[in-house]
Amino acid sequence: MKKNGMVLMTIVSAAAAVSHASAVSAQGVERAAFGTVAGRPVEVYTLRNAKGVEARVTNFGGVIVSLKTPDRAGKLEDIVLGFDSVTPYIAGAPYFGAIIGRYGNRIGNAQFTLDGKTYTLAKNDGANHLHGGVKGFDKVIWAAEPFTGKGERGLVLKYTSADGEEGYPGTLKATVTYTLTDANELAVEYVATTDKATPVNLTQHSYFNLAGAGIGDILGHKLMIAASGFTPVDAGLIPTGAIAPVKGTPFDFRVPTAIGARIDADDPQLKNGKGYDHNWVLDRKGKGLQLAARVVEPTSGRTLEVRTTEPGLQFYAGNFLDGTIKGKGGKVYGHRTGFCLETQHYPDSPNKASFPSTILRPGQEYRTRTVFALGVAK
Ligand code: BGC
Predict the structure, then answer these.
(1) What CATH number corresponds to the domain at position 207?
(2) pTM
(3) CA 26–ligand 1 middle distance (angstroms)
(4) Higher pLDDT, 14 or 330
């Protein structure tokens, strides 16, 4: 009896959970078709909070397709670069809005040695490996499950990366959860486990323009980065291994400074990056979420704060955008019309013993968190 009773209870509560989930998801998270990838349909999920802030996320690459936030006067504008349908994301996008994995940023010579074995990765950036390879986590279909909770709603995305994919060892199970809260915060949580030791460095590659995507360049945005150091790079954007002080250089953003104020200064590091395209070493104290960067767009008043558990931040000023990409609503994305703030471990860590380790081993759990807090300056 008791046993039957327990079985019955399990069934009832599972059924309740299912109907609860679908009712809630119908209310709180809308799902719509977003085209097909190699014949498979993909969806776009709309997360909308009590204040009207709206994030649209597709399960192709976990891409944030749009993010609408109010300006000083309450006018909503889409503040991320992207496309209206999935097709241009498949081949023609420089990682707009995507989840990046297995390794965000570059691995020099597309090679690393781990536990005495040398692994060769896909070369997709000259001789180097960039953002997980030819078909990284930005170009795969993720299993998606919407959810809602008190004052929040979101999307859980899951992807299993096969042993050997893009050259990486081990089967990696990744879960990325987007949560939009009523406090106008978009949280991204990354969790992963593996069955063989492998490098992991997951990030989010949204290109922001707080004045509105496609409206103009980002050079007038005022940026603060909470970092006294950065990792200088060679001409192929691979870190030299040094950590250089930002003091007295165009890389010092400890005091809010317009992105454009020094971007074309005569500086060898800016030449290597064709502008800002570097990893800042965050001034962290202890564990947990800490302020990494704050951006203010003076005309609209929109602000973006980035908090993270990660030790590094890639600030990329959209230097490779050249006006050849037409995005949402037919708007052309010109030079430096979007910036990325990619929370991460440092580039090329698998080849730099002095950098914090990015190696995940069986039995360990990879877990990092980044919050994009949206606001307006008074
Ligand atoms: C990198 C850039 C690269 C871009 C791809 C950024 O994360 O730092 O060097 O060109 O991604 O669009």
Answers:
(1) 2.70.98.10
(2) 0.93
(3) 36
(4) 330
